[in-house]
Amino acid sequence: MAVIVAPSMLSADFANLGNHIDLVNSSSAGLFHLDIMDGVFVPNISYGFPLVETIAARAKKPLDAHLMIVNPERYIERFAQSGVDYLSVHIEASVHLHRTLQQIRDAGMKAGVALNPHTNITSLEYILEEADYILIMSVNPGFASQKFIQSSISKIERLKEMIIKRGASCLIEVDGGVNGENAGALVKAGADILVAGSYVFGSPDPLATIDSLTNCSR
Ligand code: DX5
Ligand code: ZN
pLDDT of 55-87, one tens digit each? Predict the structure, then answer.
């Protein structure tokens, strides 16, 4: 399967948002990655439903929302109504994760489980079949432009082995500090979806940068 690139709109220029949405629409990216932060689960506040709905109205590719919030189960329906297609919740923020994943699927979205850097993949043992994708955080969630945590590569390798061994079909998404230096190794380790924020929007030619990530395994 070809790698799917998901530009994180947190690093887009909000004063120029329409153009940056169009840029992703016309690129080889497969998803829009939307980072939702509540200032409680993570020490930062990003944006909420008005911006998600603005992006949904103009986006021509599916929206992948990454909830870095406590009690994510409260907002599942609302994100579905806002036009989100992929919804991930943090395992560290979900008391009834099994039920929450079912609710996300029942709402018509793909269900994702996000893991902080310190969280072991063994915590997925009883949940793997309920998830459409696992999001491996390769930085501590909360901010763009952080340094990639190198051990994420072996974590993805081990998760890929676990998925194959179990005959599960979930995809692996990696998020945080992804760039041209680590993308090839991440895909080789088993990553299916590469999230990239500052590397894409901070580059002089974001379209070419997205292309280079899309083609990094070739
Ligand atoms: C971090 C977010 C990431 C972040 C990625 O909490 O989940 O999606 O915006 O930004 P970069 O690619 O700059 O690390
Ligand atoms: Zn994210």
Answer: 999 999 999 999 999 999 999 999 999 999 999
Binding site membership of 76 for ligand 1 (Cβ less than 6 Å): no
- Note residues around ion ligand 2 (Cβ under 5 angstroms): 35, 66, 175
DSSP string, the chain: -PPEEEEBGGGS-GGGHHHHHHHHHTSS---EEEEEEBSSSSS-B---HHHHHHHHHH-SS-EEEEEESSSGGGGHHHHHHTT-SEEEEEGGG-TTHHHHHHHHHHTTSEEEEEE-TTS-GGGGTTTGGG-SEEEEESS-TT-SSPPP-TTHHHHHHHHHHHHHHHT---EEEEESS--TTTHHHHHHHT-SEEEESHHHHTSS-HHHHHHHHHTTT-
For residue 186, the domain's CATH number is: 3.20.20.70
Domain span at residue 196 reads 4-214
Q: Give the count of domains, the chain.
A: 1
| 196 CA closest ligand 1 atom index | 12
**pTM for this predicted structure:** 0.98
- Among all residues, which ones are annotated catalytic? 35, 175
